[in-house]
Design goal:
With 292 residues, the protein is an alpha/beta fold. The chain has 10 helices and 7 strands.
Length: 292
């Protein structure tokens, strides 16, 4: 029997690969890069967050970064025990949060939510566990990430086998994130994207890093057979010819989609009602208003 259409990721397989990566010494440079930004983004918010949940972040970097802010409770929850560190550690699925409503004042998540099958549902649950005027801040891989690898593998596989199996996961688009936050019940949603280009001597260096992050192909629709050597070698040639810098090193693009939103509270700013303005836009712009 085929999997339901909304099941994109083989989550048990993804957990197994992440656990294996941590057992062998996980590659953490992307997570370290992102975790370092959280304190800076939170620094503009002067209010304290006594109860903090780190949801799904696959490693200790974000928990360590958050220790610069005083908190009475730090909980690190995620599906892979080896990826949890610091504070209260709890094995939990990002798609089935085991917390009571209004349990936390701040929920953060780094490089985890791109792998859930029901992102809208996960955001609804995050909103539910936030207390009034609580903040959610997350970062996930999205946009045009790994576009170079996606193209090289697809073109090589089509040329050699006559068909294409999905090899790189689909990623969320920045334009969708704001509406998803609003649908989940967040107030004052904000989204932005940060692009990081990592350079490699060959495509195989990128593949090693993805394996070291536990981020290899876990798509339900993937071809379960190993990728043929001829396809890999042809993909490496295409990657080299299309995406090499003048010095011969290859580019790999990672788009990090940042999103934040607040649990609604009466103290938060509200948009003005239509017709409530006390000054005309034409006056502010020094323009002549023409009626049509």
């Amino acid at each position: 029997m085929s999997a339901p259409a909304h099941i994109v990721f083989d989550r048990p397989l993804a957990r197994l690969r992440l656990a294996r990566a941590h057992a062998q010494g996980a590659a953490s440079f992307l997570l370290d890069h992102i975790a370092a930004e959280f304190p800076e983004r939170l620094s503009a918010i002067l209010r304290p967050f006594p109860r903090v949940l780190d949801l799904g972040t696959p490693g200790p970097a974000l928990m360590q970064a958050l220790t610069s802010r005083p908190s009475a409770l730090l909980v690190h929850a995620g599906p892979v025990p080896a990826a949890l560190d610091g504070g209260v550690r709890l094995v939990a699925d990002e798609e089935a949060l085991p917390f009571a409503p209004a349990s936390f004042d701040l929920v953060v998540s780094a490089l985890a939510l791109q792998g859930v099958n029901d992102l809208p549902g996960a955001l609804v649950q995050i909103r539910r566990v936030l207390a009034a005027d609580g903040l959610f801040m997350g970062c996930l891989i999205g946009g045009q990430s790994l576009q170079e690898l996606r193209l090289a593998l697809a073109e090589a596989e089509e040329a050699i086998t006559g068909g294409v199996s999905p090899r790189v996961a689909p990623f969320a688009d920045l334009r969708d994130m704001g509406s998803l936050l609003q649908r989940a019940g967040f107030a004052l949603p904000v989204t932005d994207v940060d692009t990081l280009t990592v350079r490699y001597s060959s495509m195989f260096g990128l593949l090693r890093d993805l394996r070291g992050m536990g981020a290899t192909n876990a798509l339900v629709a993937r071809d379960p057979r190993p990728l043929r050597r001829a396809v890999l070698m042809r993909a490496a040639e295409i990657y080299q010819s299309r995406f090499a810098d003048p010095d011969g090193r290859l580019r790999a693009t990672f788009d990090f989609v940042w999103l934040s939103g607040w649990a609604p509270h009466e103290s938060q700013q509200k948009p003005l009602q239509p017709g409530s303005a006390k000054a005309r836009l034409a006056d502010a712009l020094g323009a002549v208003e023409r009626k049509v």
